[in-house]
Structure formats: C-alpha cells, structure tokens
Amino acid sequence: MIPSSVSLKNYIGVLSGGEAFFPLKNSLLTGSYAVSVAIAVSLFVVVLDHKFRSKQTLGLGLSFMLPWILPAPFIAIGLIIAFATLSVFISGFTPLESFWIHPVGYATVSIPLPIRFLRAAFGSLDPSQAEAARSLGATPLFRFVRVTLPAVLPVIVLIGGLQLNGLLSEYAISAFLFNVNNELLSIALFDGARSSDLKAAAINLIYMTILMSFSFVVISLVDRFGLGAGNIRPKRNAAHAKLPIVVGNCRKMA
After folding, report:
1. 122 alpha-carbon distance from chain centroid
2. Distance from CA of residue 113 to its chain's centroid?
3. How far apart are CA 108 and CA 114, in angstroms?
4. How far apart are the first and last CA of the chain?
C-alpha cells in the first residue's frame, strides 16, 4: 500500500531517535564498522604483498578474494555454523545473538574490493619517493604515514564511501544473520513493504528518501575527495615549496 502523501511529521518520527530511527542508526554503525575493518585488513594484506612479494603473500591475498566466488547466503551460513560452534567455548556469550555478527558478515563480503583497488594503487606508486625518504633516515612507519598513505588515500576514500553506500541496503547477509539486537534498514524496508499499515508505508518512503539523499552526498564527497583528488595535479612550484618541509621532517626522524 502506498500513502497518498508524506508529511514533515513522518520525517520527524524517523529522525527524532524513536523506534523508526533504530534501523537507520544500526545500518550506519554496522556499515561503518565493517568498512573500517575491511580497509584495515586490506591495507595490511596489500602492504605485506607489496613489500615482500612471495608466493605466501600472493596466496594470502587470493584467499581474501573468496567472497567474490562464494554466494552471500553461503558465506552467511558459514558464519552461522562457525559462530555457533565458537559459542560453545565462550561462556555466557552467543555471537549470533549480538550486534557484532552483522559487522563481521559485512566486513567479510567487503574485503575483496579494497584489496583489488589498493593493490592497483600500490602498484602505481613511484618507488623513488619512498627511497628518497629512506635515504634521508625516515623510519618505515614515517614513510608509510607521510609518503605512502597520502598517495593511496583517494582510493581509500573512494572505496570506503562506495562500500558504505552499498551496505546500507544490503539484504542477503542481513536476512540470514538477522537477530533482534540489530535490526537493519534493509530488513525494515522489507517488513514495511509487506505491511498493510499506511504508517509503515510512509516510513518506508522516508527510508528510501534518506537512502537516496545519503547516496548523493556520499557520491559527491567521493568524487570530490576520492576520484577528484586523484585528478588534481599540483603546480610545480607548490611541490617544490613543500619539499624542504618533507626533507626537514625526515632529518628529524633520523
């Protein structure tokens, strides 16, 4: 059933922190946690492979590509079996009934894309920059934070924004891992679509409007700070002006 109109009262009811706000808040938190973990794991795997380049690191990277091969329901069922077995050894805690089962599932299916993009980003880095910083005495951590990370940051922003945008409406993992402690937006949309209540239908329209608005904001920010940042070429004079600062910092680290 489709309501004839949606009033400001409906928006206030969703955004005021009441019962209708919980699915939206839970989806934002779950997606943010999952994307953060996926990017952190991807950075670790890609940096390891980029630095050592062995069959072992290559195999490790390929193992994280399995979620692209396995169907999402298969992954969800695997997590259910794994955590059901794990809960036997954890006294008083059942992971399947907690908030954190959804971030784990989301992070699992989100890892392959960051690894693929970050591997391409690391492959296009200019090795002379890291070599110059090392010759000036910079530590590996300093080189990563001040040289490598800023170069791949646009890719991280791009992947993080797009994946968070996609996870807000993800349904397969959400349905299989559903529990009362973490009702997500996609489940609320499905329940509202099957309801004959006009209030539920109005809330559904509010959810979809918020999703579209959020998607527009995320895509705009990603284009500005992700793709757009990668296309901006600094002026030669500006680059030369920053060179003494980097050199000075490297000497301090030495």
Report:
1. 19
2. 10
3. 12
4. 69
Higher per-residue pLDDT: 53 or 237 = 53
**CA 133 – CA 143 distance, rounded (Å):** 6
119: left (phi over 0), alpha (psi -120 to 50) or beta: alpha
Q: Are 204 and 182 in contact (CB under 8 A)?
A: no
> Which residues fall within 8 angstroms of residue 159, CB to CB, at 6 or more apart?
39, 113, 114, 117, 118
Question: Rounded to whole angstroms, how far apart are CA atoms 215 and 45?
Answer: 29
Cα–Cα distance, 88 to 90 (Å, whole number): 6
CA dist., res. 56 & res. 208, Å (int): 45
In whole angstroms, what is the distance from residue 178 CA to residue 227 CA?
A: 35
CA distance 159 to 39: 8
Query: Which tens digit of pLDDT belongs to each residue from 100-150?
Result: 889 999 999 999 999 999 998 888 888 888 788 888 888 888 888 888 888
Calculate helix-pair angle for 112-123, 22-52, nearest 10 degrees: 40
Helix-strand-coil split of the chain, %, nearest 5: 80, 0, 20
Amino acid at 140: P
Distance CA 96, CA 178 (A): 9
Report the candidate in 176, 182, 179 with the shortest Cα–Cα distance to residue 73. Answer: 176
Q: Are 184 and 30 in contact (CB under 8 A)?
A: yes
Task: Determine contact, residues 80/176, Cβ cutoff 8 Å.
Answer: yes
Residues 6+ apart with CB under 8 A from 21: 14, 15
pLDDT in tens, 214-229: 888 888 887 777 655 5
